[in-house]
Design goal:
This protein is an all-alpha fold. 79% of the residues lie in helices and 0% in strands. It contains twelve helices and no strands. Helix 1 packs across helix 9 and helix 9 packs antiparallel against helix 10.
């Protein structure tokens, strides 16, 4: 019992700086959510239930473009698909006797950063450690979104537009480092930029909803990259 309690507080400790980073990023997401017409409470709930920057951005922009429920669901699933792989990886780190409910709750709270600190711990992963990190990081993510929406309602439109640019800077910071290390990622990013631009000019395709175009391009580019340059098992093991 003492070991589990200690793991929970260790999770709180390690999750706090992550939560502060989430708060700053989510504030910019809140500006996008405000433009999509969400209230601070709706923004908080959407962030707590879908705590993924790319996934939330896709969600808010889809709502803003009046996408259908099916399109919103599919694009959110596609953008967040990487968490399925993280879940599989974490499942191998649990004690075999860990209950299904612990696995389910940990699976709900997977984010890139929390996954990173959890997978780096030696030995079996204690669910309480993950719960501690989730307890502090995810509410701060939701709070940042709510305050971003509130600030967007308070500030003049030109200030809101300026704050919206910060999120694009965040995405650039996410894609540039791995692109510099991996040529396949770099080419995929460059191709996605080019095809995204061309899709806005191509007849018939340009008339599609933004969410639908994004789904098609994401699946197409990822599929081609997986076929042409599949990730070797030795590479995956060395990265883990």
């Amino acid at each position: 019992m003492k070991k589990r309690s200690g793991a929970f507080w260790e999770g709180i400790r390690d999750g706090f700086p992550i939560g502060m980073g989430y708060f700053a990023v989510a504030f910019s997401l809140g500006i996008i959510a405000r433009n999509a017409g969400l209230t601070p409470i709706e923004g908080y709930l959407s962030s707590v239930l879908n705590h993924a920057s790319a996934g939330e951005y896709a969600l808010y922009t889809s709502i803003q473009s009046a996408a259908t429920y099916v399109s919103v669901a599919i694009i959110t699933l596609v953008v967040n698909a990487r968490y399925l792989l993280m879940s599989c990886s974490l499942s191998q780190r649990f004690d075999p006797n860990t209950s299904f409910y612990h696995r389910l709750l940990v699976g709900f709270g997977i984010t890139d950063e929390i996954f990173g600190i959890a997978i780096a711990r030696p030995g079996y992963l204690l669910p309480n450690y993950y719960y501690g990190a989730m307890t502090i990081a995810i509410p701060l993510w939701g709070l940042g979104t709510s305050l971003g929406i509130w600030a967007g309602n308070l500030f003049p439109q030109n200030v809101v537009s300026a704050l919206s640019v910060a999120l694009y800077g965040m995405f650039i910071a996410i894609i540039i480092p791995p692109s510099k290390k991996n040529k396949v990622i770099a080419v995929s990013v460059a191709v996605s930029f080019a095809l995204s631009f061309l899709s806005t000019l191509t007849p018939y395709i340009k008339d599609m909803q933004v969410g639908t175009r994004t789904i098609i391009l994401t699946v197409l580019i990822a599929s081609v990259a997986a076929v042409v340059k599949p990730v070797k098992e030795e590479t995956v093991n060395s990265e883990e």
